[in-house]
Amino acid sequence: MPAVTSKKPPVPIPLLMLIGIVAISFSSIFIKWSSAPVSVQGMYRLLFTSLLMLPFARPYSGAAFALRRKDWLLLVVSGAMLALHFLLWMGSLKFTSVASSTMIMALEPVFIMLGAYLLYKEKNSMSAIAGLAIAIFGVVFIGWGDIGLSSDNLKGDLLSIGGTAAVAAHLLIGQKLVARMPSYLYSLIVFIAAAIVFAIYNLLAGIPFFDYPPREWGIFVLLAIVPTVFGHILFNWLLQYASATTVSMNILGEPVGASILAFLLLGEQLTILQWAGGVLVMGGLAVYLYAGRRKAEKRSEALTSIS
Prior knowledge:
By secondary structure, the chain is an all-alpha fold. It has one domain. It has helices spanning 13-33, 38-53, 61-65, 69-92, 98-105, 108-120, 126-147, 151-177, 183-205, 214-238, 244-248, 253-266, 272-306. The relative contact order is 0.21. The model is unreliable at 1-5 and 302-307 (pLDDT under 50).
């Protein structure tokens, strides 16, 4: 991950973050609009994104040849986890509301914290743990509200939780790999690996690759360009201008943006329990991210005093 520099991007950071939040918020809307199997949507989203990235990959060819066999294995596993994330999370949108699914997806830091503790023995402050506990309590509220709607809604919530756990595993592997390889190269290889995993899944499941109307192909392209290029890749690019904690605050924006878009474009309504759960999730995550920033500031101050 590149170090934050004092240089400024050509466009103000707040405006770029707003563009990124709006872009990723459209992801669930496009998925809802599509009638294609989610595994096909995920495959073409990653394939088209990879094709857009390939022309800029030549400077990283040397780093690719320097990768060890173990690195390639981890890249494939990371790609498989990313594919599983898309399969479960995108599948959840067929059963539950955009708001419920994206609010649960915002719990990604919870799974990352647990994984980092189990794998790397990373510890968190009590305030960070308290924030995550509040967020988990909020998910219970969301699930409770969904039970009152239908059993399918609860099934969608569970799929979203599974998708969140999968993307956390993907990010934890990525945290280890980007320490010794360019993040652009990592993203490109993982996207290609995930697309191949989806292709194998579709082949084994007998799901057609090409028998879709032009409207569906348009949605596949939009999924690659809008939420992926102008969302996730933009956030990765912003890491050279802003701290990881600042960029990660965008995770709070997606459920809000997606819920507003779902109300305007899909006519989705939320129950009082779902709203209450959403407020708890967002509030708990805000506490967690603030605690993480304070921890990073104290570590930086300690290093400065030593030097």
